[in-house]
Design a protein that fits this description.
disordered N terminus, Cyclophilin-like_dom_sf, signal, two-stranded antiparallel ribbon, eight-stranded antiparallel barrel, about 40% strand, alpha+beta
Amino acid sequence: MLKILLSAMALTFASTGHASAQERILISSDWGEVTAELVDNAATQQLIQMLPITIDMRDHLRQEKTGRLPSPLPAESRQRDFSAGTLGLWGSNDFVIYYRSGRVPQPGIVILGNVEGDVSIFDRPGPITVRVEHID
């Protein structure tokens, strides 16, 4: 039985085509930098292919910074609740860094990942330009 279980696990791992380690990104700006761990979905896989990118972001509702990606990301399941540090996708190409917790209206956001550092660096009025890079 153990041999069958181990064989099944090996087959599952081989069929995924990639390791289970999470992808990470660096988000840097004049206000500081943070790292983030991305979830594993088609949207984040396509986002990684765009990197590095520079995004002009604006403050929205005193809870988030939001900016346009150069091209849309694939549709994924959405949710309405978010917490400080959530990276999200509003629509198909609005990259969002949430620095406060809250809830968005329907249809919700695609969760891209979570900031690992001090997301409060973005809790300031006004626009900011960020650079997003893949961490190898």
